Amino acid sequence: MGAEANPLSGPLSAVARSRIPGATGISNLKRLSGGASQETWSFDVATADGLVPLILRRAPGGARDARATAVPLETEAHLIRLAEKADVPVPTVRHVLAPEDGLGHGFIMDRIAGETIARKILRDDEFAAARPKLARQCGEILARLHRVDMAALPPLRTSPARSEIKQYLETYKAHGHPHPVFELAFRWLQDNAPPEATAHTLVHGDFRHGNLMIGPDGVRAVLDWELAHIGDPMEDLGWICVNSWRFGNIDQPVGGFGAREDMFAGYEAAGGIKVDPARVKFWEVLGTLKWGVMCTIMVTAFKSGTDRSVERATIGRRSSETEVDLLRLLAPRG
Amino acid sequence: MQDQPTAAELVEAVAEFIRNHAMPQLQGHTAFHARVAANALDIVKRELEIAPAANAGEEARLKALLDREGTLEDLNRELCARIESGAIGLETPGLTDHLWATTLTKLAIDQPNYSGYKRAVEEGR
Fold first, then answer.
1. B57-82 average pLDDT score
2. Is the pTM of this model over 0.80?
3. Where residue A184 sits, what CATH number does that domain have?
4. Minimal C-alpha gap between A16 and chain B (Å)
5. Which of A69, A311, B75, B106 has a Cα-to-Cα distance from B52 of 20 to 30 A?
């Protein structure tokens, strides 16, 4: 679809001319991804100094993300700006959409060059020099992210361990199919939940491949802040260690590219609290279970007819991957 | 008794057709979905071959573990309820052996190339 034929093109061009200094128009508008309630668009703004590559994230027609845990796009933009001030690598937010912009809810940010696809980052030669540095970098970035000033945060849900467990237990029970390994994991998590007393911080909530823009020099930007909340900072360190995000590199626990010790060292060196590996393991178990529950509930959309794609159908058969990972964590053999 | 070829052989033939003949003619998203469809048929083929004996074994283990009769689904629901209540746990003799056997069978059908499965098989040797 050409930019001329796209109904977004006119309003977006007007927004760019009024909000981006020196902008004369837009080009190369194309949809990158998105579900029913959220869209990501790539476009370039023409200026006297050349093209400025940008991204529009928006929910059309005032639509809000249906997931109860996702933050509004205005909040996401606010968090990205706070993270930038805390020296977390993020795309600079250029403009938060206002009602008079006629584009719904959303914001415009810089488009950072790089790769988010795990298999390329973990296999391609161009990232070979970056890979050994990534685990430590992730630790450093998370330490800075967790030090974002709590007093400056927009309203966010607070979700410590016990409420995360409760939320996913309810989701699993509503689905109805029996998973004895999930029951065992829920029981273990309830019996091993860390004490509440720890200081809460901003938590990214989805810090893993797909949401990390990576170049040959390392992590360039942390994306997709929609699952951000207030909670235990160790949640982010555990989530990136879930085996599902190692993409086959099982012996490199951090995202398939590095060692836990490197991430922990980077975290502590950049001002993070002293890492308790047992606490991180707790969040890895919970993260593995969360992904397993998410895979099983995908079946609901398939069976109800909402999404009859083969892709949706088969993801239900990936929940067993998390069951083997949970057993290796909770009842290792050999 | 049904005639030849077996259900597993028919499914295998369709998966081969998709991979070797249909996919090369397709592009983009449709080609991707054709690959996913062939993978789904592989799951069906493995389930046809593996599940009958594996389900019988699972049922026998559950009856022994729970000391009751029932369908495979009833028994699994009962096991879930007893784990949730704490009546059965990691320390219960036979539980982890049962869960390992059941889970490894699921993976042998669903995703035999999954890293966690391959590692678990090595660790069990």
1. 98
2. yes
3. 3.90.1200.10
4. 32
5. A311
